[in-house]
Amino acid sequence: MSFRVLVPIDDSEMAVGALRYALETFDDAEITVLHVAGGPSPMMGVATELALADDIQEAMEERARDVLDDARDVAAEYDAEINTDVRIGRPARTIVEAAADYDTVVIGSHSGSLSDRLFIGNVAETVVRGSPVPVTVVR
Predict the structure, then answer these.
(1) How far is residue 53's CA from residue 48's CA, in Å, rounded to a whole number?
(2) Measured at the alpha carbon of residue 54, what is the angle toward residues 49 and 56, in degrees to the nearest 5?
(3) Domains and CATH numbers, the chain
(4) Model pTM greater than 0.90?
């Protein structure tokens, strides 16, 4: 059974740094990149947009496409393959729930704008506190 690493990712530099760290540190591991679509925002814009879509799964995958394509490009630089997963929900809660299926989580220390961090809270901190497996926070 291989070592399984979960790397939550968005479009931030910190998330890409976490993926690079995971690829360098766990080069023999099975790495899954998770993008959480439709997380809360001050006005619930993304979540509402997804809820009103005709096909929620298709809308989630469309929103995640660029982020996951970028993650695959980073993995290709390391001559590595990654698995991808897209889920809908509150980012921290969704990541903690997904973490139960992995041996460790590697997450960027923060992402988003200052206002996002003030309204939503620090996702990395919540993951560290709630994860059932070890978490590495990359700065």
Answers:
(1) 9
(2) 65
(3) 4-138 (3.40.50.620)
(4) no
